[in-house]
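Why do we bother with a discrete structure alphabet at all? Because it lets us treat a fold like text: something you can write down, compare, and reason about line by line. To make this less abstract, here is a complete entry for MPN domain-containing protein. Read it the way you would read a sentence in a foreign language you are learning: slowly, and without expecting to understand everything at once.
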Amino acid sequence: MANENVHANHRSRMKKKFLDAGTLEIFEQYEQLEMLLYYACPRKDTNGIAHKLLNKFGSFSALCDSPINTIMECGVSEHTAILIKMIPEFTRIYISDKHNNANKIIDLEHLGDYFLPKYIGKDSEEVYLLLMDSKGKELFFGSVARGSFTSSEMPVRKIVELVMNYNAHTAVVAHNHPSGVAFPSKEDIIITKNLITTLDLIGSHLIDHIIVADNDFISLAESELTGSIFYLKDD
């Protein structure tokens, strides 16, 4: 009982410190993780657990990006590991929702910045599609494929159907290189050329293909390797 009272008092002080400051930035990283773990380990000393996890993985982001089974190898429960794994997912949901506006005009000069948050915490390939009308207003945004793919496996048919359903004037696709760099492969260039040709046949234009890797991206429309194959963004 005495230990529980000590933990309870410590948690109360930590929570009050957060409420008074209004931010987690005043805490050390192990303290930030310690507080998160309060809600998975209601009766344990989460300070020690936080130190153990950060010593093992090196950083909070590396911890969150690790497989659940690997996290559990540090002695935490599946319940706790799931909470940790949900952090990148909720981060991505929060950012997407915060900036979501069905009536917004997309800033075509910063398409990479638009897609970058969508890949927070993604450890496998995923293709996103953005469709717009002739004025640059967003008509559709969503994931159209997951997992590794080649030019023959790109969901061209699904993209065409969505373009036709929304009567989209312009389209942008993006995908990520989870374990690589934001540089187009030969396959990426083939995929891009195929999409440009296919959408042109139905009166729509692919204006960019964004490749994301970690916290970096490249716009193929602005790349010297492929830029000449795209329609100009202000056409």
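What the structure line is telling us, in plain words: The chain has a mean pLDDT of 86. The chain has nine helices and five strands.
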